[in-house]
Amino acid sequence: MPTPRPLLPPRRRIRTRTSRWTTSAPRSRRRCPQRPDGRLITLTQLTARRAAPLVFVTEGCGPCERVLDHAEEWIGELEQTPQVRFVFSRPLDQPRERTTDRVTDHALHDLQFTARTALGGASAPSAVLLGADGQLAGGPVNGGAAR
Hints:
The chain is of the alpha/beta class. It has one domain (42-146): Glutaredoxin (3-Layer(aba) Sandwich), CATH 3.40.30. The protein has helices spanning 27-31, 43-46, 62-68, 71-77, 97-103, 114-118, and strands at 5-6, 13-15, 21-23, 52-56, 85-88, 107-109, 126-130, 136-142. The strands form 2 sheets. A 6-stranded mixed sheet has the order 1-6-5-4-7-8, with no helix packed on it. Strands 2-3 form a two-stranded antiparallel sheet. 31% of the residues are buried.
């Protein structure tokens, strides 16, 4: 199985009380490599060539498992256009074999669902569509019934 890519939320600039601009990169981004090879990927890098629907799921969650049952179908149907990615909060070396078989190399790791929160997702499952320009093109959609 190819090495999965971790997912990082976009960087935001915030103004501090001292009137300096600073980057609000999450702690996980600054100190925790999320791929076995230690490389990270930003949302901008992920969507540099084509759009990416991101489906945020939690392994073992009933509605999430039903969404994951459609993973192979969506990956096959959307292979030539957007790059479907299934995003987990648990490290990618820990999913069950059944989950790994369904999402193949289309899995990303989002520590504590930092990116999901930054993109407006409130629960799992949820989904957003990032355009090829790296901007939010659709969503967020929350809940298993919103399929």
